[in-house]
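Table S4 entry, Rho GTPase-activating protein 12-like.
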Amino acid sequence: MIHFDKCCVFCCAESPDYKQRVQSIKDLVRQLPVCNHDTMQTLFKHLRKVIEHGEENRMTTQSVAIVYGPTLLRPEQETWNIAVHMVYQNQIVELILLEYENIFGR
């Protein structure tokens, strides 16, 4: 759904400072075309509702990130190390879910 340069994804995921990771992702999300931004915002809003019902559906924030990370965030060019990409994708999706209000708030 969202193609990010792999450097951007790695920088966001690897920053040791939590606030800096959130700000980096927020900056990237704001650079998206309006239609992509709005679709992403709507989808993550829905995924947060799924997580709210975690007692019934057993979907935690981490579970949703694992399922949707590789689908939602794809590197522009696939490399030989897909497993590394998946770890970063999952971390970023989890962070977006946890920081939804901060990232999508106006």
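The longest helix spans residues 34-52.
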